[in-house]
Amino acid sequence: MTKGSDTRNALLAAGRELFTAHGYRGASVRAITRKAGANLGAVTYHFGSKEALYGAVLGSVVEPFRDHLTEVAQRPGAPTERIERVVQAFFSYLQEHPALPALMVQHLASATPLPAGARRVLEGNLELLAGIIALGQLDGSIRRGDPRLMALSIVAQPIWLTLVRRVLHEAVGFDQRDRRMRAALVDSVLDFVRAALAPHPQQA
């Protein structure tokens, strides 16, 4: 690994930590370069701008998620089985990679535009799930409806429940760090998804 790539990786790691803790506006270039042990011009040299570094940081978190989700979704199975695996993958990945939900919270609280790379990943994830729903509609295992809107409704549950997990713990004592509680939560969401996707009697 070259010194240049070492510096670039150090800037990504520092950016990920500081953007997660302070958001885009709260994390200064000076603080990021100091954390990375780099000179003040390193961000411009390696990324072109703070905005581009922010996009690269988000990309470093969401792109592995896209790859994981694609691999899970492409495993053989009926459309409903594949959708259940996607929901479980959302929960597990967000739990195992706390930087992603933390960055999501910071981004939601800011007025910063979503970087193009992260937007493409999120659009791709939505289209992936919508495509599986459309297949289920063709074979009659999933009710009629707009596949994209149905996909949004499905992914909203693991994302929202992960983002508010601290509030749920403090307000109602539901601790997602407890494996049994978390497993019960995932099972409950899967039950809702199954019921929501099931064909109406008049559609059967």
Question: If you had to describe this structure to a student in words, what would you say it looks like?
Answer:
Helix 5 packs antiparallel against helix 10. The protein has two domains: 48 residues, Arc Repressor Mutant, subunit A; 146 residues, Orthogonal Bundle (Tetracycline Repressor, domain 2). The model has no long low-confidence stretch (mean pLDDT 91). It is mainly α and 204 residues long. The chain is built from ten helices and no strands.
List keywords for this structure.
Tetracycline Repressor, domain 2; single chain; 204 residues; mainly alpha; Arc Repressor Mutant, subunit A
Q: Which strand-content bin applies to the residues?
A: under 5%
What's the helical proportion of residues? over 70%
Q: What general outline do the C-alpha atoms trace?
A: elongated
**Topology order in helix (H) and strand (E) letters:** HHHHHHHHHH
Please describe the biggest sheet, giving its number of strands, its sense, and whether it closes into a barrel: none
Level-1 CATH class name of the largest domain: Mainly Alpha
Q: What is the fourth-level CATH superfamily of the largest domain? A: Tetracycline Repressor, domain 2
**Radius of gyration computed on alpha carbons:** 20 Å
Which structural category fits the helices and strands? mainly alpha
SS field, number of helical segments: 10
Number of separate domains: 2
Mean pLDDT: 91
The gist of it:
With 204 residues, this protein is mainly alpha-helical.
SSE layout and pairings?
Layout: H1 3-26, H2 29-36, H3 42-47, H4 50-73, H5 79-96, H6 99-108, H7 116-139, H8 147-163, H9 165-172, H10 179-197
Helix pairs in contact: 1-2, 1-4, 1-6, 4-5, 4-7, 5-7, 5-8, 5-10, 7-8, 8-10
